[in-house]
Amino acid sequence: MNATSSTAAADPGRIVLLTTSHRVAPGLLSWPAWQALREADRVLCADGAHPQLPYLREAGIAVDEASPTAEDLVGACAGGRTVVVVATGEGEPALTDGLARLAGSGRVRMPELELLPASYDLPGARLLDLVQVMDRIRAECPWSSQRTHEGLAKYAIEEAYELVEAIEDGDREELREELGDVLLQVVFHARIAEEDPQAPFSVDDVAAGIVAKLIHRHPHVFGDATATTPEEVKEHWLRTKAVEKRRTSVTEGIPLGQPGLALAAKLASRVRTAGLDVPLPAGEGIGYELLALAVRAEAAGVDPEAALRSAARAYRDAVRAAEGVAD
């Protein structure tokens, strides 16, 4: 055996672990992935039902449905061969663990190992997982399958308040979790809405509606309009909203069930933005005093609800200090 053939025989070869995302349509692989598949001496896949297989075979890639051990795979690469392993949805933990043990033993000259992502999730792709999980829970969970919009309404309010608390606490981990809980409420309600016999709609309809609304109300981003300040953006938003809703009063669309200070501030904001001169109602008692404070706060650019919550939290801390309770 000459030196060249001896060197080739000693070459341990190369293993390419090809990973794909189930959230991207099968067959939409990256160019490096297609190159690796076409240049491979052998392509293996342990899952005979892998969604990529029909597309690989259609492209002329021969795929062996096999689940080799780490030792088998190392042997298949001997002599400088390249073996591509199309990973299953769960990855290949047994195979990679086995390769790690072989490498750690020092007894085997290991092939080059490359992890090659063949497709990547688009931003927001995990939302598809949430929709699928919610579908299954709605169908199979005895509690979730019986929920209604009315029965879930209180949870939406609770989760919104917990989100606000996480923001005010500055707790990033809690913020991420609470945003997820609020998102769950949206997806849950949308899933229930699909079952309505008279007027069904889906989470896609919900998303399509808000996308259309955002584009329409941001002509300075998606159209020819110009807005250089936040105030100009808000003015256009309110004008567009008034035309869309065909409201006869600036008070329309303000939910009366919201907390009192927030309600008063919202009314004051609508009045001020519309340029109306509406004197506060004359009356006696703490309610009218709070109304005046809320209007004054709104005019000063202060959220009275947030201000009161901040003061109340300081009061709570003072109470705990008086009790000798450590935070």
Could you explain the architecture of this structure?
The protein has 327 residues and is an alpha/beta fold. It folds into three domains: 11-117, Cobalt-precorrin-4 Transmethylase, domain 1, CATH 3.40.1010; 123-202, Orthogonal Bundle (Helix Hairpins), CATH 1.10.287; 258-327, no CATH class. The chain has helices at 3-10, 31-39, 53-58, 70-77, 93-105, 126-140, 149-169, 172-193, 203-216, 219-222, 230-245, 260-274, 286-299, 304-323; strands at 14-19, 42-45, 64-65, 82-86, 112-117. It has a five-stranded parallel beta sheet with strand order 3-2-4-1-5, with helices on both faces. Strand 2 (42-45), helix 3 (53-58) and strand 3 (64-65) form a beta-alpha-beta unit. Helix 7 (149-169) runs antiparallel to helix 8 (172-193). Mean pLDDT is 89; it is low at 3-7.
**Count of individual beta strands:** 5
CATH class of the largest domain: Alpha Beta
> How much helix, percentage-wise, in residues?
55-70%
* Number of self-contained structural domains: 3
Poorly predicted ranges = 3-7
Q: How is the CATH topology of the largest domain named? A: Cobalt-precorrin-4 Transmethylase, domain 1
Strand content: 5-15%
Name the CATH superfamily classification of the largest domain: Tetrapyrrole methylase, N-terminal domain
Q: Looking at the structure, what is the overall shape?
A: elongated
Q: Counting H and I runs of at least 4 residues, what is the number of helices?
A: 14
- Kindly, what is the distance between the CA atoms of the first and last residues, rounded to a whole number of angstroms? 78 Å
Structural class: alpha/beta
Using only CA atoms, what is the Rg? Answer: 31 Å
Query: What kind of sheet is the major sheet?
Result: 5 strands, parallel
Widest sheet: strand ordering:
3-2-4-1-5
Order of helices and strands: HEHEHEHEHEHHHHHHHHH
Based on the structure given, which CATH architecture of the largest domain is correct?
Answer: 3-Layer(aba) Sandwich
Average of the residue pLDDT scores: 89
